[in-house]
Amino acid sequence: MSNTSYQKPSDAELKQRLSPLQYEVTQNDATEPPFQNAFWNNHEAGLYVDVTTGEPLFSSRDKFESGTGWPSFTQAVDPARVTSITDTTFGMRRTEVRSKAGSAHLGHVFEDGPQPSGLRYCINSASLRFIPTARLEAEGYGAYLSQVTGEARAPSAEDNQNSCASPAAGAAPGCEATLETAVLAGGCFWGMEEILRKVPGVLETDVGYAGGKTKDPTYQTVKRGDTGHAESIRIVFDPKKISYAELLEKWFFRMHDPTTVDRQGNDRGSQYRSAIFVQNAEQRSVAEGVKKKVDQTGKWGAPIVTQIVDAGPFTPAEGYHQDYLKENPGGYTCHFLRD
């Protein structure tokens, strides 16, 4: 099934067509954060193709739950479409996989996968475009229908026993994200996203709900103020271009008033509180240090009340909230950068 010609678009076209995150992953070999990407938990039947060229790469039939937080496959749908090279970054010797025609960085392949192949293709969602089974014929992938609709491999309890999810004692995980995630709350998420999506080094933003106890929050429930959720923004950023400390000090603590409890401008309620939802102990340490530093400047004239709490589930908000001020210039916002 390798006789169809696929060609890599020009760099200018790729920059125009791909999101910043997709470009950084496919063209600059970045690795997206785990558990916070489009397809790690996708269970729909279909075909995964190269986001840059459309080359068919992986079938949902060969996808399995690896416990790593990235889409994982036991084999390529067409081995001729996937090439491999030795990767020695991060002090590890790994096998990188790239698309054949597009030379797009896909991820890595490991020899700790389930049988019968024993392989685990650990792939970035940002490198993939998903085509549901019902769309295969219409989009020119009808020849792969049988490879998608065949009987899927039964899940095994051993699927997540691998070097990423369960590294050997004292060993580093075989997968290593090069991009980081921050989850911040500081009032209406429309205004926050409008500022943060333009920050150099920020690759992707989405608004949603974090910090609450109720399951499956929606705007209609969160706006009541009794679910515990805060209107929040999730940011994927490149730490080589902007550090977590810089993101907090130069942007987050300047774009909203961190001294008001459960309030931002005219917006009142716990859903509008100031909060930093930390992903790990390192982020907590940095966040506490930055909060103390900003507080000690006295610029706000009152104590900073920003909460620093462990990140729980983040639920993306409804589609019409995403990039709201980009789509609706002049819409409501109380966010701006203070000196």
Describe this structure as you would to a colleague.
The chain has about 350 residues and is α+β, with helices and mostly antiparallel strands. It has two domains: about 10-150, Metal Binding Protein, Guanine Nucleotide Exchange Factor, Chain A; about 180-325, 2-Layer Sandwich (Peptide Methionine Sulfoxide Reductase, Chain A). About 20% of the residues lie in helices and about 25% in strands. It has eight helices and 17 strands. It has helices at about 10-15, 20-30, 145-150, 190-195, 220, 245-255, 280-295, 325, and strands at about 45-50, 55-60, 65, 70-75, 80-85, 95-100, 105-110, 120-125, 130, 180-185, 200-210, 230-235, 265, 265-270, 275-280, 305-310, 315. The strands form four sheets. Strands 3-4-8-7-6-5 form a six-stranded antiparallel beta sheet. A six-stranded mixed beta sheet has the order 16-15-10-12-11-17. The chain has a three-stranded antiparallel beta sheet with strand order 2-1-9. Helix 6 packs across helix 7. It is globular and about 65 Å long. The model has no long low-confidence stretch (mean pLDDT about 95).
Structural class: alpha+beta
Full CATH superfamily name of the largest domain: Peptide methionine sulphoxide reductase MsrA
Main beta sheet: strand number and arrangement?
6 strands, antiparallel
Mean pLDDT: 93
Extract low-pLDDT stretches: none
Q: Please give the number of β-strands.
A: 17
Estimate the global geometry from the Cα principal axes: globular
Helix content class: 10-25%
Work out the count of structural domains: 2
As a percent range, the share of strand residues is 15-25%
Radius of gyration: 22 Å
Strand order of the largest sheet: 3-4-8-7-6-5
> What is the CATH-assigned architecture of the largest domain?
2-Layer Sandwich
N-to-C order of helices and strands: HHEEEEEEEEEHEHEHEHEEEHEEH
**CATH topology tier name of the largest domain:** Peptide Methionine Sulfoxide Reductase, Chain A
For the termini, the CA-CA separation is: 59 Å
CATH class of the largest domain: Alpha Beta
